[in-house]
Amino acid sequence: MSAENWPLVKAILDEVLDLAPPERAIFLDAGGLKPEIRAEVDALLAFEDDAQGLMQLSAVEFAKNFIDDDESDMSGQTVGAYRIVRELGHGGMGAVYLAERTDGKFTQRVALKLLKREMNTSALRRHFEQEREILASLEHPNIARLLDAGTTEDRVPFIAMEYVDGLPIGEYCRVKNLDLNARLELFRTVCGAVDYAHQNLIVHRDLKPSNVMVTHDGVPKLLDFGISKILSKGIDDADSATITRMGLMTPSYASPEQLQKKSVTTLSDVYSLGVILFEMLSGHRPFESKENDLREIYSAVIEHEPMLPSSVIDRHTGEMTSEPYAKSVPGNVTEPVNVRHTGPTSWTLSAGSVRGDLDNIVLKAMRKEPERRYSSAGNLAEDIRRHLNGLTVTARPNTFSYRVTKFVGRNRLGVLAAAVILLAVVGGVGTTLWQARVASAERSRAEKRFNDVRKLANSYLFDVYPEIENLEGSLKAREAIVKNALEYLDSLSAEAGSDLELQAELATAYEKVGDVQGALNNSSLGNTHAGLISYEKARRLRESVLAASPADIEAKEQLANNYYVSARTLWNNSQTNEATEMFESGLKLRRQLAAAQPDLVEAKNRLAVLLIDYAAIPNFNNQAEKALALYNEAFTIISDLRSRDPENPDLKKSLTRLIRSQSQAKATLGDFDGAIADLNMAVGVSKELAVQFPKDFRVQRAAWLTESIICEVYVNNSKTEKSVDVCAKTIDFPAKALAHEPENGVVAYDLAVSHFNLSRAYRLEGDLSRSIASGDRAVEVMAALSAKEPENNEYKRNIAAYETEIGRGEIGLARYDQAAERLARAIKTLIPIVANDPGTTTYLYDLGLAHRLLAQALNKKGDRPGALEHIDEAIAIVAELKAKNSLRDADGDLNTELENEKLTYTK
Fold first, then answer.
1. Where does the pLDDT of residue 492 fall: very low under 50, low under 70, confident under 90, or very high at 90 and above?
2. What is the pLDDT of residue 786?
């Protein structure tokens, strides 16, 4: 026998020795074994006829005749820098030991995973190394960390992982006697860890309670990526087949496609999460009555529908209740749960507490067809959050029509025969009912078409769209999705009538359309005007739904979110008064929601985020004290939330958002050092989040935004020694993103802003030629955006600001004609913007600066009357700003300065 073939041969023997001889051949034929492997297995099986005792031995015991068992007790042995204390567990590929570090550098206990010597083949070494690669790529508070890796003296690979001193999640729930909400929150945390792995293109493939340990402090840790798959690389097909045939995955928790050797995706993990949740809620596994028979468990997972979790709960015994089958049409096979008890002697959850939404959530996660499951672990967690908050969940029970379709698929011949008989019976009375049936059929077709259109639009926007929403480079795909979905939405909107559910669906659809068209901080087309129209359509529908159900928390939440995104988009479009009105409306609802849900982290966090973004308006208009009042309220909320959950990534994002914004107000009030210290801290947190969420465009952009604000603070405070270096670093991210996705309006805007800030930094340093070059690049990028959306005042205002900065540089280079031309163009652009948005005093300030610089240019050209005209305009504007208390401290006595400048023009 080949030594290299033995591990696989041994695993196959483990599975077939308990089968009857005729069944063995069927099993082996289905395995697709290589001829040499099949020959070795057949030869060993042939010994059964001549050796009476062979069937009494397990495959492992039988293997001792071929392999020395020198690993029975590793206690006290040294592996690398670690001394083994005891075995924690073992599996098909190796064993895991509790070990202590012995090199004296520091005290540390680890879980040491060691490949079995007899498993040390090239294929399994590659797989073991892949596990190490996977663990090295994952940094998450709920995933056991990789600490070290290496090989023993005899070249057996090992991995040293974080030792998790705790209990498997199911046992933890039972020992701690957790109530329903605590179990669901714990499970949501696990979903977050799985979702993180999926975002890093890792599929676990063996999720089960023993691979989810919970520490004594209640922190779940995901373990054992031993058969995981890296989606971006895949694994060698032969290796994958070997691993699957060795039975390393656990059939009770494996998805149907895994057992059928089909493609494994993130949706396979979603199925396994559904099984874990089934067990956490009911105390049973869905198909545990079949677990003693490999073929039976395979058949059950692949073909049978699981029972409702609530239907197998008995409050006193943990055994199945009197209803042995889930309701179904005839032939829709469901699986009764064996009375073999896996739960506690007194199960603490009632069937009533699980029945309904939770039943539907579990069964949706466990759908046989991957495409009908939750599209991600994050969406599964979100539906549980909605259940916990009393909101409508997306999971629905299988419809009658779906069950009938599945029944027909399984019983095609029988159904056809029944249909022929039925037609013969009813044919005699058909003509008398013909006219009535025609009318009914027409109505049915109209209803079916309406429902099909509604379903298709929802599928585009609620299933497909979320899968790619935050992926870098997904803009074109999202644009196509929205275009197609809009065709269906338009046919639905006129028929919404008083259907509140349809109105809410349409509102969500229009909001997603608005996100793609012009959302700030999203990978959008940058078409703000179109986005605002979509948000307004959605808002009218949201207000209608809430008016019909004023106490509906979900309706209030959705309307508050619409106010928020509309406010930010209006603010981005230089519509300050309208933005303020929307922020105020949103703030009112957010306060109500936070008060109504005092224990809900998300409700308070969303209030804090709205306060932060609302403060941008007074902050931008040099009303730092007013801005700080809003920031301080947000800080109080976030600090309280983080004291309870310091590692929550959403709270980290909110904190960095707050620090970024608040630092600008600090700088305006003269606390430059404090602003920079805050921003440097925010950079660290932003980069940590960027590593944690490498595929989330918004998180990646937030890291850039923090560095961009540092640049602005340096420039605004005339810190010449570092401004150019700091600002030059901000070019790279938007430049690369725009090259990758040329239609992305958000990153184009970011690139223009970065070039403008660099232009100002060069001017402070005295390098006017480079200042003008950077300013021209900023104008070029922003002008391209403005050409696509000519009604966007923010683009126009930015171009005017860039032209003003360039004009300043050209005055410094004595190019007065070019300067005057640019500055006159900037003034012409700014006058209507100021008139349309008098609430934004920064625009007025920009106009006053342009007038002043044009006066200087005209004076140098010898046009004294023109110079006096424009300096007078500047003086009048400064007086207006002073009356509005909107001058910067750095401006000093600007009015006196301008009056003195005017005197030089009259001499």
1. low
2. 92
The alpha carbon of residue 730 and the mean position of all alpha carbons in its chain are separated, in whole angstroms, by 25
Q: What CATH fold (topology level) applies to the domain 792-906? A: 1.25.40
Name which CATH class applies to 166-398: mainly alpha
Q: What is the pLDDT of residue 512?
A: 77
Average confidence score pLDDT of the chain: 77
Burial of 467 (0-12, 13-18, 19+ CB in 10 A): middle
Domains 443-598 and 792-906 are alike in CATH topology: yes
Q: How far apart are CA 124 and CA 146, in angstroms?
A: 19
Average pLDDT score over residue span 205-227 = 84
Measured CA to CA, the distance from residue 679 to residue 704 in angstroms comes to 12
Provide the CATH topology of domain 443-598: 1.25.40
616-621 contact pairs (CB < 8 A, 24+): 616/571, 616/661, 617/571, 617/576, 617/579, 617/580, 617/583, 617/840, 619/661, 619/664, 619/665, 619/668, 620/840, 620/842, 621/839, 621/840, 621/841, 621/842, 621/886
Distance CA 530, CA 688 (A): 35
**Residue 206 catalytic?**
yes
Phi-psi region of 783 (alpha: psi -120 to 50; beta: other; left: phi over 0): alpha
Of 14, 68, 195, 206, the active-site residue reads 206
- Which position has the higher pLDDT, 609 or 522? 609
The residue written with tokens 């059950």 in the block is: 300
- Work out the pLDDT band at 250, boundaries 50, 70, 90: low
CA 438 to each of CA 125, 315, 430, 441, 449: distance values in angstroms, whole numbers, following the listed order: 68, 53, 11, 5, 16
The pLDDT of residue 730 is 94
* Start-to-end CA span in the chain (Å): 108
Q: Judge residue 103's burial from the number of C-beta atoms within 10 Å of its C-beta, 0-12 exposed, 13-18 middle, 19 or more buried.
A: exposed
| 252, 269 contact by CB (below 8 A) | no
Question: What per-residue confidence (pLDDT) applies to 342?
Answer: 40
Residue 827 in this model has a pLDDT that exceeds 70: yes
- Asked whether residue 240 carries a pLDDT value surpassing 50, the answer given is no
Do 576 and 794 form a contact (C-beta atoms < 8 A)? Answer: no
What's the rounded Cα separation, in Å, for the pair 850 and 810?
A: 13
Report in angstroms the alpha-carbon separations of 370 from 235, 306, 381, 470, 812.
21, 15, 17, 22, 66
Burial class (CB in 10 A: 0-12, 13-18, 19+), 294: middle
CB–CB of 289/338 below 8 Å? yes
Q: Where are the domains of the chain?
A: 6-63, 166-398, 443-598, 792-906
DSSP assignment letter at 157? E
What is the helix (H) or strand (E) element at residue 639, kind and residue range?
helix 624-644
